[in-house]
Amino acid sequence: MDMSWTHQDLSRRHALAAATGLAAGALLPTARASARAAATFTNPVIWQDFADIDVIRVGDTYYASASTMHYSPGAPVLRSYDLVNWEIAGHSVPTLDFGAKYDLNGARGYVRGIWASSLAYRPSNRTFYWLGQIDFARTYVYTATAAEGPWNWLTTISTPYYDAGLLVDTDDTLYVAYGNTTISVAQLSPDGRSQVRTQQVFTTPSSVGTLEGSRFYKINGQYYIFLTRPANGQYILKSSAGPFGPYTLRQVLLDLPGPIPGGGVPHQGGLVQTQSGAWYYLAFVDAYPGGRMPALAPVTWTSDGWPVVQLVNGAWGTSYPSPAVPTPPRQVTPMTGVDTFDGTTLKPRWEWNHNPDNTKWAVGNGLTLRTATVTNDLYWARNTLTHRIQGPTSTATAVLDHSAMRDGDRAGLALLRDSSAWIGLKRDGGTTRLVMVNGLTMDGNWNTTGTGTEVASAPVQGTRIWLRASADIRPGSARPGTFSYSTDGTTFTRLGPAFSMGNDWRFFMGYRFALFNHATQALGGAVRITRFDLSTP
Question: What residues pair up with 88 in beta bridges, in sequence order?
């Protein structure tokens, strides 16, 4: 990451032009949590890329949503019972139904799509709401009666609610706080399908710079809009006169040292209250090349109603006492481990690079990827399946059956971002070779500038091979990714030089492991991945 970004007053809107949060939980009856044995947790609570977090509590369960840009399905729903251990429950946006570019059809949606959005729960109809703007053009609303889904499109609103925060008020009225520097509040119709009114409620002073990333709360009769100064500050607006203000501004944090060495300032997240009445702030930390990692800290309130983040030696703590919550009903599903692609659907840990062609893949007895695109550019290839990298270091190993590849096909395991590399197979002239390729690059407008250079190769015997990518995503200087292979799953041989993973922030999403299979001559080939294992040292 270009850490000078933390001292710039650039918003994502400006950068791209140049190239309820808690309400549901707060409304629930407060129950005394059964105290668990004293323990501590360590930040980041999730060392995977989940940014622009919105967090709520419904009963004894916590949910969070995050940005996913061009990955599909979008807007993952995370679930936890203690705010520390999280699993991926599903996605609020099943398909990026926002235009052909999200299908890699004549255009591409890189660094567009699902930005900071909002997740809320409405007790009156026992329904979850997801709300977010797309392409500065309009706002989409999806709903579900269970957080894991199915989620369904509810409506499209013509006003683009930039960095929205959805509030379900105590009288069941729906409000949205949104905007960049100029902050507005909209009231929605009772059914949530249309806008009733919108009004500007605050203009950020020039001394502060940019504010965005709204989260909207009602706490003890006061209205709060939680705002981010990207990427080094957090501020809050408070109104005692109603959702349309007037609002008073106060700084929550600025240039606060974070809990990840080499990483940025915790910011842009949400507030949530536990069953026992304690408050927490779940933020994210810029930690490229891996992305933006969630970190948790307790919050107290001043006598006149302002939040204060609890610090450790003047910094966001690397550890704190664990939240006092009831004993979880079960352990959450780990975000690492083995997937053999059993069942009939992909597990929610997976997201495609843009929308997939659903006629060209299948699960059950492994993952079958049929070629879906004829291209020499991986960034144009459909049906590239991605998985977040686990920090600070982790290794992905895929077992691949390549017996059904055809001439011109390329298949393998990549470290995928705007600068990428991969290990995999090239089949040409009836011969299959193992290769390591780097030099896949995009420019700041996300156009391809390099389709890759083969830098190492090895002969292939048999029809099954183990492909491995290891990634160091500790932030700071550029970090290495390495590739290796095996013919027996036990002895691995390094292939090619170390790949330097870029740590610039402007692609926003961090590096991912990616499984791919595309054609360069004609469709018809296929590979089958029988096992994927994400492990840490």
Answer: 78
- Residue 170: CB atoms within 10 A of its CB come to 11
Of all helices (H) and strands (E), which one includes residue 219?
strand 212-219
Q: Is 62 helix (H, G, I), strand (E, B) or coil?
A: strand
Helix (H), strand (E) at residue 183: strand 182-188
Structure-block tokens of residue 278: 């304690």
Question: What would the mean pLDDT of 342-362 be, rounded to a whole number?
Answer: 97
Helix (H) or strand (E) holding 140: strand 138-144
User: How far is Cα of residue 393 from the mean position of the Cα atoms in its chain?
Assistant: 18
pTM, 2 dp: 0.93
Any bridge partners for residue 64, and if so which?
55, 78
Q: Tell me the backbone φ, ψ of residue 105, rounded to 5 degrees.
A: -110, 90
pLDDT tens per residue across span 356-367: 999 999 999 999
Whether the Cβ atoms of residue 424 and residue 401 lie closer than 8 Å to each other? no
For residue 392, say if its preceding peptide bond is cis, omega within 30 degrees of 0. Answer: yes
Q: Which band of pLDDT confidence, cut at 50, 70 and 90, is reported for residue 477?
A: confident
- Phi, psi (rounded to 5 degrees) for 16: -75, -30
The structure tokens listed for 186 are: 């909209």
CA angle 526-71-504, nearest 5°? 110
- Between CA 240 and CA 243 the distance in angstroms is 8
Is residue 412 packed enough to be buried (19+ CB in 10 Å), middle (13-18) or exposed (0-12)?
A: buried
CA distance linking residue 409 with residue 425, whole number of Å: 8
471: exposed, middle or buried (C-beta count within 10 Å: 0-12, 13-18, 19+)?
Answer: buried
Cis peptide, bond prior to residue 396, ω within 30 of zero: no
- Note whether 472 and 390 are within 8 A (CB): no
CB 355 within 8 A of CB 103: yes
414-417-418 Cα angle (round to 5): 125
pLDDT value for 495: 98
CA of 450: how far to CAs of 7, 237, 434, 437, 512, in Å? 31, 46, 20, 11, 19
Which structure tokens are listed for 248?
């008073």
pLDDT at 431 over 90: yes
Nearest to 504, CA basis, from 450, 441, 437, 452: 441
What pLDDT score was predicted for residue 332? Answer: 98
- Rounded to an integer, what distance in angstroms lies between the CA atom of residue 260 and that of residue 511? 17
Q: How far is CA 371 from the centre of its chain?
A: 27
Following DSSP, what letter does each residue of 2-15 receive, concatenated?
Answer: -GGGGG----HHHH
Amino acid identity of residue 411, one-letter, is A
CB 315 within 8 A of CB 533: no
Q: What's 315's DSSP letter?
A: B
As a whole number of Å, the CA-based R_g of the chain is 23
